Amino acid sequence: MQDQPLFAPYRMGALDLPNRIVMAPLTRMRADSQSHAPSLLQAEYYAQRASAGLIIAEATAISADGFGWADTPGLWTEEQVRGWSRVTDAVHKAGGRILAQLWHTGAISHPELRDGVQPLSASDVNPGQVSVTPSGRKPTVTPRPLTKEEIRSTVQDYARAARNALAAGFDGVQILANYLYLIAQFLNSTTNLRRDEYGGGIDNRARLLLEIVEAVLGQVDAGRVGVKISPMHETNAFAANQETLPVTEYAIERLNQYDLSHLLLMGNTTDFTGTPLEQLRDDGMFQHFRPLFKNTLIANVKMDRGRGNRLIKAGLADLIAFGRPYIANPDLVERFAAGRPVAEIDWETVYASGARGYSDYPTWQQAESNKLEASVSER
Asked: What is the number of H-type helices and E-type strands within the chain?
């Protein structure tokens, strides 16, 4: 393993990790559709993947107002906490470590998910994205701007969710501050048209994120708190502009003052060519931000074993998060260690229900055993 730093132990904040392979957060839509509580099936799924150095659980709504994706879990009720307790117990019994990811969808939600009420955001700007509702995917609608009182309540919702995460047995939390969701909607100059202290300049647009971090740190030790953030280029309101990179740089530099356990940085998920983010293509994202963040940096998107080892060797990342490879490979660590092939995903079952395409993917050894049994039965 000397040539594979992915397998070197690592101290991340308050956690000792046996390897540097992270299971990235993956929305899979297996929570109860009414209570938004995790199921026993989810406990089985995460426990199967406990050999990862760290599991970051799927995005989890902090409140009813923050909920905005069908069949995803929450962390605001006692029933949800009990459901997550079964998940964390199963992961810990299997020898793993798991963080909760705290999520407010903002304008990505839909009235169908909110009893007919408009979703909430920084401003009344339709992001031009897609909402995932119980009856299918639908265009987003124009949200209602949060009042200052509602912003204060939202910050406290994050604090409560962080407290609930610890009560549920999580080893820490990660604040989801990128992609298309509420915090990103405040950071983005296209979706944030506010004229108060939460809008306008970069420092004001980052204010919500920093207030959330401080509120969460009031409940959880900094050595168990991280943030997921990256500059993004998506469609419509989230197309990269001249302030996309500067606001992310500002936010990350400010996050350094809190001595957080980690930063999860996503590489480009779309083509950055011809955009203000062109320099961040491929490894450029990690080359640019590695010097800006002083603690653990987790690299994510389009990772395989070779690239992960290379990024760690080059000092561009400390840990590597694998998303899609973990869907079909519960034993990804073992496959990487032995140089075995990675199984392919059944895409029809990624966003579905039940065990099929979720907890029924075999390990490499199980797959080989199944092949042998099938061969014998054909003779």
From this structure: 12, 14
Distance separating alpha carbons of residues 139 and 334, to the nearest angstrom: 41
pLDDT tens sequence across 48-85: 999 999 999 999 999 999 999 999 999 999 999 999 99
Q: Is residue 64 within 8 Å of 105, Cβ to Cβ?
A: no
pLDDT tens per residue across span 255-266: 999 999 999 999
Is pLDDT above 60 for 1?
no
Instruction: Compute the average pLDDT of residues 176-194.
Output: 97
Region of residue 205 (left: phi > 0; alpha: psi -120 to 50; beta: else): alpha
Distance CA 60, CA 101 (A): 6
pLDDT in tens, 320-348: 999 999 999 999 999 999 999 999 999 99
Pairing of the two strands 120-121 and 98-103: unpaired
Q: Angle, to 10 degrees, between the axis of helix 40-48 and the axis of helix 78-93?
A: 30
Domains of the chain: 5-378 (3.20.20.70)
CA–centroid distance for 28 within its chain: 12
Tell me which residues are annotated as active site. 181
* DSSP codes of every residue in 137-187: EEE--PPEEPPHHHHHHHHHHHHHHHHHHHHTT-S-EEEE-STTSHHHHHH
Residues 6 or more apart whose CB falls under 8 angstroms from that of 126 comprise 107, 140, 141, 142, 143, 237
